[in-house]
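User: Second chain of the day. Same drill as before.
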Amino acid sequence: MKKILITLLIVIPAFAVSGQASYNDSREEFMTAMQQTRKSRAHITVLRILSVQSFEYKHVNKPGKLSYELRYDSKGNITNWLEYRKNGKIKRQSLVSYNDSNWATISASYNGAGKQNWKIRFSYNTLGRLIEHDTYKRDSQKIVSKTINTYDNKNNIIESETFGKKGNLKSRTEYNYYDDGSKKQTIMYSAKGKIKQVWNFDCNPIGDLRAKKLKDTSKVCIHYETDQDGNPIKVKEEYAETGIFGTMERTVTKYNKDNNVLDVSAYKLNGKQTSHFSASYNSQGNLTEYIMYKAGTTKPWWRNSYTYTSNGNMETEAFYWRADQTPANTFKYVYNSSPTK
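Assistant: Same format as last time:
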């Protein structure tokens, strides 16, 4: 549940992408997210949590204001996410519905007046793989975007097609694998069948990659290191065009043994660092600190720190500027639970 809170309540900076997109390992990340969701549901169900409210404090001697609220059903699923204005009125909210397998079937967003902004409908196969998701804008009867996924007999996604509101093909992505099931190549095509982006999954010897000649191809290399305690650290290295002007950059992302992000750094091809952030976790796998650094230095630009209750619920979240020791903002979480039987 704390990882869901982190996802919803913390704005994690992402690298702006233009032209070529950074690769999203959809199958691996989707399955990881599903596992985290199961753990979260179990945690919420055991503690009989009905809702979580986040209160923002700018000064410890002044009352905090209700900022966000998450509501859950009896199975631990998030059914309602609300954001509040300073006067306590709802600014916007999202509603989510689930089937008997706890798979989200409908997600809809509304403004403070209750008017629908958009809605997404999800469909799955018998193994829980997402096979289709349709997006509606305002009028819930008109589809503005449809994505259909196809899987092989090993449950690997092999094709994803996205269609526009008139049913016209907008893009198509093919996924290819080696015999051992690991990723080999992912290719994105335009509606006319022109290759828009290629991701190749292999690792060349150091210095052998001619990144400047990649053009419409990104190089993704995944290898493993070992931390000081002997635990494996997954390292994903990617060369791709990023940023407003579509410049080629090298991005290195490190993950711990639980697949939590430890560090992300981006560099120009001349080696100059353009962005860097890191994350720390406690022995229970809860995020305890998130730091965004000034590029090319070890000086924090800003950071967040988190504390938890004895049963693993997030208790406080504090935001600091630079090396300040006094938080600029503090969030405290209140858990509303049903009486134990």
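The chain has two domains: 2-114+202-337, 115-198.

User: Great, on to the next one.
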